[in-house]
């Protein structure tokens, strides 16, 4: 990096306006001079929208910094602090922030190629070894971790600028260095610290723990979970132990006079070929950094468990629980991308299964029969020859792999994918209806009479998730919530009818039957909570039919795609605004027939029984505790609503009491009664007294 002494003219500045005027006079009309990486389009955009990058070169007085000297001697505790702060910047990058505003603000990461021992200006001075051996190894390991993360994220499972930022600003992430060389540097640094004992305790232990933590993280990113699952599990345990040691030896922030503070420049983007405006991101407290690192390790651990899980229903359960539960929060993009790669690498599922296995698991996990049994039955009983069975199999493989991977999208992208998937699932359902119609005379207790119900069950689950995601993403306006809850109850009603049919046919002692019974109880409780919320939310509606109808078609446009017209089969569980308005009218005419408290109490009874008896279905598996946690949240939500709304009256209910907050309530789908609102209502004088 250049210093002030390198600037032409030193610090004695002169007015150069005339120089630019003379240069411009020699340029022909229409000629423009651009710096590298800045095009005519960028220039026009800057004038059009006030591009902040135009101001990136202006350095304010409070932003003035002395020249960065990468060889300035540092104390061991300052090295620890720099390494810890680098961990914080790395976690900020994993959270979706640009490298230019996170990792590259560590000036050692930008100057890493110059930190070679042969270039040390102080020769073999022991103090320089802390930089050339210890700090260089740690920063190299961090950059190599970022490089491996970048490679995983660039595969396309996550969306650039939406989930993560791919711009490297033409700055090295040590792409040319092998992982083994980076690990060797970390081992050499650890060996030098232990062998020479030039660093006193407790900083010797603190530095070794930080180097070992970095080594284990780099090894985790470089290890294929399928090739060595036991080694992968061991590395996670080793990383957790090193993290605990690091937390036991915290590094104090250096005094304001310490040169360690000059190792970070939040405005370094002005010196890089960056395409984004400069944004200073506050560095979190170290406690938050270590918590983020623990969540990263938890994500790796869950990915390891999923890699050994062959049940598609368990994969679906894990994905839904991560989407539904705010705790733990959404995994970082790197973990979500790596999880998708574990499930499907573009050729095989779970690194060993093909389309036939996916198709077979679908029938087995829903009906308890194999695909071969279905095919044999069709050959014996169908009145038509199904030559397109292979096409059906390939289509199912595509739908299933895309669906499972979509469960690890970000919430907004996941919702959009599910809405598009509904059309394809309806076409798939219609094909199954055609197959079923070719086998007349089957009774409801015959498994093969429910082939279409398998797909319908899947489609209704997707509709339910689309509706529920609207509450988690806070998409619904106050006027839209009543319809959302009513439509949810209608979808669940169709879902329950489908489950009833399947339960008549499957073996009651089978794993699919246990899962179906759990889903039946869970959905019954969910419906018992949705119906009273539909009625209580009616007071939020304006009953302006024209405006409400327009909002309805805007919100549920995914249900009226023209592609549905290409399929002859009727669409199940379509949203119906006229039917909804009729239900609202009936509820307002006879409010005494509805009891919100009884509905919430029924839901509470069902959910509490599921929790106490640990009835979590047949495919929860390793995610049993997570499913119980979800159920417990609904238990608390139903109990709170039943207690707080015991005296609620449908026509005159005060809608201001309800507070929707998907992150700070027992369940992200249901509100709580605002304590402040209750207090305001108690203190409010009666209208007659006010008059």
TrEMBL record:
Name the InterPro entries on file.
NAA35-like_N, Naa35_N, TPR_NAA35
Q: Bias regions of kind Basic residues — which residues? A: 680-691
Write the protein's name: Uncharacterized protein
Q: Where in the cell is it found?
A: Cytoplasm
- What keywords does the record list, in alphabetical order? Cytoplasm
Q: Which family does it belong to?
A: Belongs to the MAK10 family.
Q: Does the keyword Cytoplasm apply?
A: yes
Which residues belong to any copy of the NAA35-like N-terminal domain? 29-181
Q: Name one Pfam family in it.
A: TPR_NAA35
- Boundaries of each NAA35-like TPR repeats domain copy? 393-499
According to the UniProt entry, the coiled-coil residues are none
A Gene Ontology cellular component where this protein is annotated is: NatC complex
Lineage: superkingdom: Eukaryota
Q: Give the organism the record lists.
A: Mycena indigotica
Q: Where is this region: Disordered?
A: 671-691
